Amino acid sequence: MTHELELRVRYAESDQMGVVYHANYLVWCEMGRTELIRQMTGTSYADLERAGVALAVSEANIRYHGSARYDDLVRVRTTLAEARSRSVTFDYLITNASTGARLASARTVLVSLDGSGRPAVMPDDLRRKLAAT
Amino acid sequence: MTHELELRVRYAESDQMGVVYHANYLVWCEMGRTELIRQMTGTSYADLERAGVALAVSEANIRYHGSARYDDLVRVRTTLAEARSRSVTFDYLITNASTGARLASARTVLVSLDGSGRPAVMPDDLRRKLAAT
Amino acid sequence: MTHELELRVRYAESDQMGVVYHANYLVWCEMGRTELIRQMTGTSYADLERAGVALAVSEANIRYHGSARYDDLVRVRTTLAEARSRSVTFDYLITNASTGARLASARTVLVSLDGSGRPAVMPDDLRRKLAAT
Amino acid sequence: MTHELELRVRYAESDQMGVVYHANYLVWCEMGRTELIRQMTGTSYADLERAGVALAVSEANIRYHGSARYDDLVRVRTTLAEARSRSVTFDYLITNASTGARLASARTVLVSLDGSGRPAVMPDDLRRKLAAT
Hints:
alpha+beta, 3 helices, homotetramer, 38% strand, elongated, 24% helix
C-alpha cells in the first residue's frame, strides 16, 4: 500500500545553506505516514491516539540524494514495508514534484505503545488492516 | 486583496499541552503571505529574493483565541493591510476549517531589504502591484 | 524580577536569508520564561503543569531590531511585567551577547488554565510568588 | 575525539505524546557536531562556511531507546568516527544527564561541498585536524 502527498516547502524549513534543513524531512515522513494510516485503516492516527494506541518512532534512517528549496513542490511517497504485532515499518521516497529528482529515501520503524506509554501488542483490528497489504 | 489557504496540522507542530505550539502560527502566516504575494504579483517571493529583493519581518503581533490540534484542518486568510515604499503590512485570520472557530489573528510588518540586507525602497513594479488593492 | 540566559544559535534556527528565522525568537522567550518562573517560584513550570496548572500564551508581540546568526551567542533578558489573578505578562529583551546589539524586544501575555484547559484563577501560592516583585 | 554538551529541553521540542518530537534529536546532534568541530579544528564551522567549505548531511541513522521530556537536562556525546577526503562520519550518544538513561544513539555522514554546493575534497588543513584522532 502506498500514499503520495504533495507539499510546498516553507521558508521556515530552509537553512542558511539555502536548502531545507535535513531534520525537516523526518517531519514530511510523518505527514506521509499520517495519510497512509488514514487511507489503510479508515480511521485517523489522531483517533487511534485518543483510543489509547500510540505508535512511537524507534528507528529512523534517511539518505539525502538532493536538495529541496523554499517554495519547491515536494512529493512524499509512503509505503508500508512490514506490519508486525508490536511494530510497523514504513518506507519513504521524497522527490521534487516538478522535476522528479530524488531528494531523499527513508525508513522508520514504529513501535506500538498503550495509553500509558508501555510497549504493547497492536489491537487486532488495526493489525489486520495494516497487514492486508 | 485576500488569499485563503488550508493546511493540515502536523504532529511536529503539537506540544505537550496537546495543542499547536504558539510560535508555529507565525510559520502559517508566512505560508499565507507567500501565496498572497504570488497571487498579487504574478511572481513568487522565491523569485523576488533571487532578484535581490527581500522582505524581512520587523514586527509581529498575534492574539490566540482558540487551539489548533494535530490533524485539524486549518484555514489561513491573509490580507494585505498596507503597502508603503519601504514596508508592507499583512493581516491574518486563522480559523479551524471544519468548525469555523477563530484560532488566532495576527499582523506582521515587513521591511524591504536589498541584496546585501540593507533597508531599501521596494522596486516600483513590485510596489505598484502590491498597492493596487 | 529579571532573569538572563545565554544560548548559542543552532544551525536549524537559521533560514535562507542567513539569519535566524523570526518565529524562533518566541521559542527563546519561552526559554527565558521557564527560567524566570523557576527562579521566582522555586518550582519548575514543568512541575506546575504536572500539578494541573498551565499557562498558555494568549498574546505575543515582538519587534525585530537586528539579526541573530548561526553560532552567535544570544542573551535573553526576561522580566515579569505584571501578575494578575488570571494572567501574567512577561517582557523580553534579546541581544547579541558578544556585541550587546539589540536583536528583538517582545512581550507575551499568558493566561492561567486548569488541568482540563479551562481558564482558571491562578493558585494563591503561585500568585503570591509572582506578585512579590 | 569526543565532545560532551548539555542542554535543557525546550517546551517547543515536546509533542502531544508528552515527549520530545523525534526529529529534534537530529538538531541536538548538529549542536554536538558544531562543538566537536570547534574543539578539534580551533575554528568554528560557521567560519568554515564563510570560507567556502560546507559539510552537508548525506545520511542519518538514529535509534531511540528512551524519551526526553520538557525541562530535562540532556547530554549529547559526539565522537568523530571517520574522516575521509570527501566525507566525515560522527557518532552520537544522547542520554538523560540526571539519570544517565540512554535516550538515543545516532550516526551521521557528512559530505564536503565547495562554495557553490558541489562535492569537493576537504581542504588539507581541515582534513589533517579531523584525521588527528
